[in-house]
Amino acid sequence: MNNYNPEYYDQDTTAGGGGFAIDAVASDRATFIRKTYAHLAGAILLFMGLEFIILGTPALLNPIMGLFSVSPWMILIAFMGASWIASSMASSAKSLGTQYVGLGIFIVAEAIIFVPILFFANEFRPEAHVIPVAAVITLCIFGGLTAYVFVTGADFSFLGGFLTIAMFAALGIMVGSWLFGFSLGLFFTGAMILLMSGFILYDTSNILHHYETNQYVSASLALFAAVATLFWYVLRFVMMFSSND
Length: 245
Known about the structure:
With 245 residues, the chain is an all-alpha fold. It has one domain. The protein is built from nine helices and no strands. The chain starts with 5 loop residues before the first helix and ends with a helix. The N terminus is likely disordered.
């Protein structure tokens, strides 16, 4: 999401450059895009490395699983708080180092909250290979949506209000399912995949139209958040679909 703060760029020399990517010369725009997606790739690799370490280390795995089993909603609230802090640091900090700290906090928070679903997915019907299947589906969705935005140059910033309302509605449904004990089934999971696809369109178009050329850390965080959440729900969908075979 675009958190443009004009004061942030007045004195900034650490990030190098400034001005909206859409208005920049071709070389500066290409550099910004390359840095953004390089940071996204790095965030994904770091996330994967953390998951490999956590899932393979009982001293880390057991306490995390224990926390989720005792109070999953408290962990979710803590995760949302950490995400908000990380996003704020990455999008508005004057120091590039602080932006990297924000991105790092978010990656760690994502890695922790993904532990239970990856643990159960790893134990779930090994012959179904649900994690690789979900990863490939996520990559195809992300790649297709990204290519569409870059080829057409479309600006999807108009989706911002709708996506925010839809996300609050989804959170309300989640809270309702916890309070009243109803199940969030295949339909809800599919709807969340569509919603996260909308966020990918929104964030990718913002990279072209509404980010400064020295906001590549913030841009990569926004994309990573959307891709990680998309993967979460694709994985849930694949597991649900496989269990019904």
